[in-house]
Task: inverse folding
């Protein structure tokens, strides 16, 4: 049967699979990180997968966004991803949001899900996902990739958040733009697979999550380094005296295509 | 006297005696960068109180935006 290799796993079993089939995971972004997440979570039998993205598939996406095929160029990414998910596993219910996450829609979209995965490609969206999830007491996994390197961390209510390490995004001048920075497709694959693994661990209750830890990967040296950090008492979002009390999106969106 | 440390897995010499001075020496931007000393993040507010010792392993982490 479809899930026999999960059910054989020590600590996973029928119960773990049942939990996955009853779970709802939201992918924010259907690009490089979203692709491996969607493929593995669909195959794993996560009952409901939500995908939010307003972008369409373009040729330069295909080097790393492995859920989209050449024939999908021009299609909305959520539609292309939903088609593949249904083909991989008809057990999965797919919910698509053909919109970018924003301060207006974030809280409502995430409210329906058990676990959220940040697969976005800008600081504005990453901070928005972090802030919305922390405020709504939702667990999530944040990931970021640039060139040959990547970072990933998981938050559950009470654990440190992204702002505990990086209180504010870099200044605009210090951010290289997407057009000038490359990314190795397979590195995005590694990171997305780690995020999917974190989601599965959280939903089934197995293992130890990447909470209060930032995993840094350098693919060139193939060095994986786990950095410990604590919930920061001075964090402007989750610290003792928070100054961020409502959602506000940073306006700087260097990677977003202009929609016409 | 400069001390010998490692920065992102490479040997380095520094005149800095704390993390704040090291960040200045490395000319790091004000935002979007975290520093770990021996695999533990040093929060920015504690940089000037976090002293550097011979052999410390420093990790400079730039937030990655891509996805």
Result:
């Amino acid at each position: 049967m479809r899930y026999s290799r999960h059910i054989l796993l020590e600590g996973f079993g029928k119960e773990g699979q049942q939990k996955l089939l009853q779970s709802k995971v939201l992918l924010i972004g259907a690009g490089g990180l979203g692709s491996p997440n969607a493929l593995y979570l669909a195959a794993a039998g996560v009952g409901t997968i939500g995908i939010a993205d307003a972008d369409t598939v373009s040729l330069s996406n295909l080097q790393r966004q492995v859920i989209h095929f050449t024939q999908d160029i021009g299609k909305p990414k959520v539609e292309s991803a939903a088609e593949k998910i249904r083909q991989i596993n008809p057990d999965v219910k797919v919910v698509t949001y053909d919109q970018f996450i924003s301060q207006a829609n974030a809280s409502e979209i995430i409210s329906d899900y058990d676990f959220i995965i940040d697969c976005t490609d800008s600081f504005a969206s990453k901070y928005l996902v972090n802030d919305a999830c922390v405020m709504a007491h939702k667990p999530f996994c944040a990931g970021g990739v640039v060139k040959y390197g990547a970072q990933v961390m998981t938050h559950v209510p009470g654990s440190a958040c992204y702002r505990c390490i990086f209180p504010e995004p870099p200044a605009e001048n210090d951010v290289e733009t997407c057009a000038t920075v490359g990314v190795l497709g397979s590195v995005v694959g590694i990171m997305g697979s780690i995020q999917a693994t974190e989601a599965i661990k959280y939903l089934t209750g197995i293992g130890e999550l990447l909470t209060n830890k930032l995993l840094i990967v350098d693919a060139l040296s193939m060095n994986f380094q786990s950095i410990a950090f604590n919930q920061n008492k001075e964090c402007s979002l989750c610290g003792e005296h928070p100054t961020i009390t409502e959602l506000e999106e940073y306006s700087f969106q260097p990677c977003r295509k202009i929609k016409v | 006297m400069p001390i010998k440390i490692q920065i992102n897995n490479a040997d380095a010499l520094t005149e800095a005696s704390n993390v704040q001075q090291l960040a200045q020496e490395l000319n790091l931007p004000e935002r979007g960068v975290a520093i770990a000393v021996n695999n533990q993040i040093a929060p920015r507010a504690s940089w000037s109180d976090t002293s550097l010792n011979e052999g410390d392993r420093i990790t400079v982490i730039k937030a990655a935006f891509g996805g």
Remarks:
- DSSP finds eight helices and eight strands in chain A.
- Chain A has a mean pLDDT of 95.
- The helical segments of chain A are 4-7, 13-21, 34-44, 77-88, 106-110, 123-135, 162-165, 185-204.
- The first helix of chain A runs from residue 4 to 7.
